[in-house]
Amino acid sequence: MNKRILNTAILLLLAFNLFSQAPQKMSYQAVIRNASNTLVTNQNIGMLVSILQGSPGGTVTYQETQTPTSNINGLVSIEIGAGTVVSGTFSGIDWSAGPYFVKTETDPAGGTNYTITGTTQLLSVPYALHANSANENDPVFGASVASGITAIDTANWNNHTDSTDIAGMGYVAGLVKYEVGDFAQGGVVCYVDESGQHGLVVAKNDIPTVRWFAGTYGKTRADGNGIYAGAANTTIIIPAQISIGDDGNPYAAATCNELQITEGTVTYSDWYLPTKAELELIGANYTIIDATATANGGTNLLTSPYWSSNEANNTDANAVVITPGGTSILTINKAATFEIRAVRRF
User: Fold this and answer.
1) CA pair distance 334, 307, nearest whole angstrom
2) CB–CB of 75/30 below 8 Å?
3) Residue 18 to residue 131: CA distance in whole angstroms
C-alpha cells in the first residue's frame, strides 16, 4: 500500500506535563487536513505515535496508538504516554541517551490506514523528563543549574501565562519557551515552531477599517500563503501599488508596515499583513487569543472579515472570517473596507 504524506499544520507541536510519579506524559496538538487541504473536523482520528532514538529513522524505544476526536477547527490533542501501548514503556525511556524524535502516523478516517506522517526532534522535553532521575545517574548533576529545579518550579513552568513567569523562576531570557496564548513579543503568541523560542504573534488590537488597495486596481502578485509568507506579501504589495497607482490614502499592507506598538519599554515596528493561513492559525486558537488580548487591554477578535495579504485577481483580494467555530475565506473587491489584525514573527 502506498502512503501519501499530506499537509499537516503543527500548532503547539510539543509541550510537557511533568508529574512527581510515573507515568510522565507529553502533550501533542496538530491540525489535520485531508488530501484536498480541507480541515478534518469533528471526526475520530487514528494515530500511531513512536519515540525514536538517535535519528529520524532510529530505533523505536516506545510506541502507542490513540484515537482522538478532532474539534471544529480540525485540532486534535493527545498526551503521549497515555495511549494504548504497542511496545516499550514511556516511563522507561532513558532521556539522557538521546537525541530522541517523535514520529506520528495519522489516519484521518480513524483507522490504521496511516496516510499522514511526520517526524520531529524532541528538544526541551527530555531535559525536563530527565530532571527527576538525573541526580541519580549523572555524577556531575549536583553541580549543574538543573539540580536546583524543584517541584514548584516545574508546576510554575506548566502553568505559566507569559514569559514574565518564566523569568521570575530565574531562567535565562534567551532560553524562554513560548506557548500559544502567551502575551509576549508585542502581542499574543498564535504560533510557535518546534524550538519553542520562535513563532508568530498577533497584535492585541484591531486596526480600523481600510481598503486592500491603494486606489488603483491591478495585479501585485501577492500570492504567497503560509506561515511568515505575509511578510513577503506585504513588501511586494507596497511597491506594486506605488507603480500601479497610490492615491495617498490608507490601505491594509501599508498600514501594517507603518504600525508601531510599544509594550513595556520595547517598541515593535516589523508588523505585516497576515496571509490566509496565518489568519486561520488565529482562528484555530480563537478563544485563548481573544482572552489574552482583552486581558492585556486589547480588543476582542471580530467575527466580521479581516483582510489577508493574499490577492485573488486584479480587482479582488481574500478576506478571512474568524469565529470561535472556525474560519472561512472570502473573495472581496479590493475597494471594500475591513478591519485588519497585524502580525509579526519573532
Assistant:
1) 9
2) yes
3) 10
Could you report the per-residue pLDDT of 15-54, keeping only the tens digit for each?
A: 444 433 444 677 777 778 777 767 888 899 999 999 999 8
Cell, residue 42 = 469533528
Strand order in the sheet with 187-192: 183-184, 187-192, 199-202, 343-345
Q: Where are the domains of the chain?
A: 14-134, 201-345
Output the furthest CA–CA distance in the chain (Å, rounded): 70
Beta carbons within 10 angstroms of residue 74's beta carbon: 25
Mean predicted lDDT score pLDDT of the chain: 81
Encode 295-308: b = buried (16+ Cβ within 10 Å), e = exposed: eeebeebeeebbbb
Note the pLDDT tens digit of each residue in 79-137.
888 899 999 998 888 888 888 888 888 888 899 998 888 887 776 554 455 555 444 44
Partners of 263 in beta bridges: 266
Nearest to 276 by CA among 338, 220, 328: 328
Cβ neighbors of 109 (< 8 A, separation 6 or more) are 43, 46
User: Which CATH number is correct for 14-134, 2.60.40, 3.30.70, 3.40.50, 1.10.10?
Assistant: 2.60.40
pLDDT at site 175: 61
**pTM of model > 0.90:** no
